[in-house]
Amino acid sequence: MAATIPQAAVAVRNVLFATDFSSCSEPALLHAVAIAHHYGSTLHLAHVVNPAFFSIVPPEGYMGTQEAEDRVMKLARADAGKMVESVLRRTHCPEVKHHEWVSLGQAGETLCAIIRREHIDLAVVGTHGRTGLRKIVMGSVAEDVFRHACCPVLTVGPHSWRSDPQNVHLKRVLFPTDLSPDSARALPITMAIAAKFSASITVLHVVDRLNPDAARDKARVVAALEERMREMVAAFGPMPPGIAFQVEFGDVADTVLETVSRQSVDLIAFGLKAPDTYVDRLPWMYAYRVVCEAACPVLSLRGQLGRER
């Protein structure tokens, strides 16, 4: 099967780890180190200092000076270096090549620029798991990267299992899909990862609304949807061994989270349409709720924006 997967899908030469030095950073860094160690990748640790920090000017005016900016950037670079060196030493991965990038700017925009400049194949970010008003007030760098990065993004939520870089095991991968072309774009990398770790894949489609006629014949609806899922997977080569197809009815996010818990899923992977419009953003709201609450990491790949096509 491996020969049918495009090589680009499994090439992970550069891994970006975005950090704000908060408590949610280390679990995500452990995953980033595990990936870099496993694939022989270069690890890029990035931290972005928000320029708004320097607009807070105390009576003595020190915070508004170039001296203050230089001092903060120097401290941030030192912290970034200490953070990655400490984790590499503690996880016995000293051979992992790494760079630290500390920049001044808006986090999401700056990180996406680094992704393009350094040819990043995978971005890893940790999230506090904030939702609702608390997230709106405090902001979310993780969600910004999750929505807008042009490469696959591995998001590690507060309930996710912790990675051991020396002993990575993936047994079960869940692939939720809306059966769209943007969803299918994430299948090659999902299949490649599953093949590399000999993990099983469950392809899941959730029907959140069903018209009365279809509700009277759910068996026919399920059979038709399962056939569409099989056709989607078959478009990328021979059917992976042990793959399962599942159709459920109900709330999308709730059903995905329940499936993760019931099947002890190790990784969720999915593709989503680029959020060009407000309507496009609605699936991302549901997806980010899964990221925040899932007991495993989430690998996402966004579709191309209209101007990128």
Structure explained in plain terms:
The protein is an alpha/beta fold and 309 residues long. It has two domains: 2-156, Rossmann fold (3-Layer(aba) Sandwich), CATH 3.40.50.620; 172-308, HUPs (Rossmann fold, 3-Layer(aba) Sandwich). 42% of the residues lie in helices and 19% in strands. The protein has a ten-stranded mixed β-sheet with strand order 3-2-1-4-5-10-9-6-7-8, sandwiched between helices. The chain starts with 13 loop residues before the first strand and ends in a 7-residue tail after the last strand.
Strand content: 15-25%
- How many separate domains? 2
Uncertain spans, ≥5 residues at pLDDT below 50? 1-8, 132-139
Gap between N and C termini, in Å?
Answer: 29 Å
Oligomer: single chain
- Main-sheet strand order equals 3-2-1-4-5-10-9-6-7-8
Largest sheet: 10 strands, mixed
- Quickly name the level 1 CATH class of the largest domain: Alpha Beta
The CATH topology of the largest domain is given as Rossmann fold
- Helix/strand order: EHEHEHEHHEEHHEHHEHEHE
Rg to the nearest angstrom? 21 Å
Provide the residue-averaged pLDDT: 84
Determine the number of helices (DSSP H or I, runs of at least 4 residues).
11
What would you say the CATH architecture of the largest domain is?
A: 3-Layer(aba) Sandwich
Q: What is the CATH superfamily label of the largest domain?
A: HUPs
DSSP, total strands = 10
Tell me roughly what share of residues is in helical segments. Answer: 40-55%
Q: What's the shape?
A: elongated
What structural class do helix, strand and pairing data support? Answer: alpha/beta
